[in-house]
Amino acid sequence: MSERLHLRVEPGQKALLEAASEATGTSLETFVVSAATEAAATMLADPRLFLLDEAGWRVFDDALARPAVAVWGPPELLDPDRR
């Protein structure tokens, strides 16, 4: 079952949405729902999930394989012996 969603837009926004829907060969409603759904999914995407091509994966995997190094940061700023 679908639900209604009522929106108010400025005339320029409506014209832009209409032009885009015409350019994609879809109805205004289909275009707006599709674009809004895609934008919402992108915004809410799990930041722990990311896609890499083969080259990107090699760089990421190599970084994980390197030994950890100490990073100088806030705790050291508070230690007078390390200044």
Tell me about this structure.
It is a single chain. By secondary structure, the chain is an all-alpha fold. The protein has one domain (11-82). It is built from 4 helices and no strands. The protein has helices at residues 11-24, 28-44, 54-65, 74-78. The longest helix is centred in the middle third of the chain and has 17 residues, at 28-44. It is elongated and about 65 Å long. 0% of the residues are buried. The mean pLDDT is 90.
Quick one: how many beta strands? 0
* Overall body shape: elongated
C-alpha termini separation: 65 Å
Helix content: 55-70%
Pfam families: TacA1 (PF08681)
Keywords: DNA-binding, Repressor, Toxin-antitoxin system, Transcription, Transcription regulation
Family: Belongs to the TacA antitoxin family.
Organism: Asanoa siamensis
What would a concise description of this structure say?
This protein has 83 residues and is mainly α.
List keywords for this structure.
single chain, 83 residues, mainly alpha, 4 helices
Q: Secondary-structure map with pairings?
A:
Blueprint: H1 11-24, H2 28-44, H3 54-65, H4 74-78
Helix pairs in contact: 1-2
